[in-house]
Amino acid sequence: MFDIIKKxxxxxxxxxxQPFQPAAAAYxxxxxxxxxxxxxxxxxxxxxxTGALKVQGRxxxxxxxxxxxxxxxxxxxxxxxxxQTNDCYMAQLDKSALYQRLILKEEVAK
Amino acid sequence: MNQPSMNEAELxxxxxxxxxxxxxxxxxxxxxxxxxxxxCDFEMSVLSNPIYDIARYGVGFVPSPRQADMLMVTGGVTxxxxxxxxxxxxxxxxxxxxxxxGACACSGGVFSKNYANFGGIDxxxxxxxxxxxxxxxxxxxxxxxLLALDKYEAVLQRGEQA
Lengths: 110, 162
Fold this sequence. Notes:
The structure holds two protein chains of two kinds.
Chain A: H1 2-11, E1 31-33, H2 41-46, E2 53-56, E3 59-63, H3 72-76, E4 82-84, E5 99-103
Antiparallel strand pairs in A: 1-4, 2-3, 3-5
Chain B: H1 8-23, E1 27-33, H2 39-47, E2 59-61, E3 70-74, H3 82-91, E4 97-101, H4 102-107, E5 129-131, H5 138-158
Parallel strand pairs in B: 1-2, 1-3, 3-4, 4-5
Helix pairs in contact in B: 1-5
């Protein structure tokens, strides 16, 4: 019994207080797309394991509902066009709000 | 419909207030596994551990859909579990909320659509809130519940069947 009391005393309260600490900087969260020239969009889309990142003409589409946030696209990206943040709050009421669309100024290089 | 604050500081407090306001005290959740890899299920069970302790906001997991206000569905619907999902949905009293938890429940995720997997629960049940992530963090699940309460309130006010 003393062991239990000792443990309770030692460990204290573990419940996370409000506000929650933000996720660790290395946490793989929301992918952010931005129009950076000379980005290898097609290679980035090719490494996506679920086909969530698509390039059609000048439009780059990321479907967050299908994305598994593995970060392969951000790794394959040579510029800052695709950046992975540690933002985890992505819940949406509408499925159409899960799509991130980016219309590029220049044609995507073949 | 005003979006609740996404500020982390207000997430928990807002959740408690909204549950009191909308549901009059507590929110009961039934977990439905329709063929997930258990990643999302573990994140959901983490919600009730001492670290996140969702019980302090009046949220509890119940063993039967008949007692539940909300269904949390994880996993893209497999051929075998489609019937289970439909029966569970039918057994939940009106008005009911459905939360799609994880990439698989939202759209099929890594399994996508194939001979065994339908890909996405929204083909069978109306979904209130999509929570993407593989798996979503517990905090993200709490934000999802908070978002669902907003829509639920609107449904209650209209007296509509969800």
